[in-house]
Amino acid sequence: MKVAILTMFNGLSKTYSLVSVVEEHLHMLLGGGADVKVLVSQDCPDSERYGIYSDERIEWVKITNRLHGKQIHWVDYAQPAGRVHSSFFEEAEVIADSLCEALSDAEVVFLHDILYQGWHLVHNIAVRQVQARLPRLRFLAMTHSYPAVRPQRMDWPLSARFLPMPNTTYLYPAESGLPALAEQYKVPLERCRAIPNSLNLFGEMGEEVQRLGSRTDLLSPDILAVYPGRLTPGKQMEKAAALLGAIGSVSGKRVKMIFCDFPSLDIEPAVYKRIIRSEGEKYGLGGEELVFTSDLGWPDGFPHSGVMDLFTLSNLFLCTSYSESFGLIVLEAASRGNLLVLNQAVPALEELGNRLQAYFMRWNAKGFGMDTRETYLPSEEAYLREHADRIASLIGNNPVIQAKTIIRRQYNPTWIWENRLKPLIEQRPIEGH
User: Fold this and answer.
1) Could you say which of 194, 229, 253 is where a domain stops?
2) Residue 16 — very low, low, confident or very high, per pLDDT cuts 50/70/90?
3) What pLDDT is attached to residue 433?
4) β-pairing verdict for 371-372 and 365-366
């Protein structure tokens, strides 16, 4: 499907926030396999193209900004009544001709503030001429600022900022603004849709996490746990896998464990991985819900900077270790907003956990001059499920962790593409509408 984005950018400076919004939409569209062209002003310098804007898959089209060889200077017609300058309709005509040529093979056109901004009035009128000439075109008109209050008196063509267009769906970043948007254009609320701005967390992270995110799903789990460590039975990673499996089973939440592992001399890595997987599967954690980074391209360990990025995405840290002298990784996980679940039987973890208000459980441990062996009554399974239920409740009732989780899961470009933009392009119902 050929999708056009009409921005009429004169430049690509990120100080203009719309540049970043369109950048994210381009990532979504290209990632979704759309055939994309971007329409900008004739005066937008090619030298300013960067990142996704310079992607060879994008057809970059410049729309004329000249009348009789002279540059068209846009006038901000924010007022709804009055007159336009003498060459206005000639300018709109030549722009419409240029747009028609550029959009002749398009099926869907995104308009970014074209119908809203007063200084885009000339393009607003041009787009309406294009719609008349190419009636099969579908328009998705995005408004990025609070909708304008519909005035009592309006004069043509200034009234175009308040008049609906055929075959057009009106978009706004928040559900709360849809009634005002519908009122601005006097259209039924059903013709308005919310398309939230996205936060591309991967875009701000290192290459290692971006690569990992392309190989396993890091965004959609309700509960994401990251456990960095050497593949040694002393870390008791199988206990962490079992607990997370129990959390998923009792809560019904989607859970995932990422082990950022590296080999040790204590045990053959493949053997210990099988033990960990077996324990996880016993409690419902299987398949893609349990991942070793050593299996995905990092056999000797995942970079520390990448681990810190993963802690930004995760919301639960399980430290079931048999022995720790301090537990720096606990501080690192806590600093990125993870609920801590620590082995209380390890003195260093109990000390840290008390200061950081961690949730405690007990597993086998090594203390000062003694080893402990835990006995669970009536069974270890009952013990895990009891604590799993409490941990799931703590995560669900913590507003900071919930905010972090919702942002990762539902404000990422993939979710917004699949649940908002893609259905619009394909003319399917949108979730929640």
Assistant:
1) 194
2) confident
3) 52
4) antiparallel
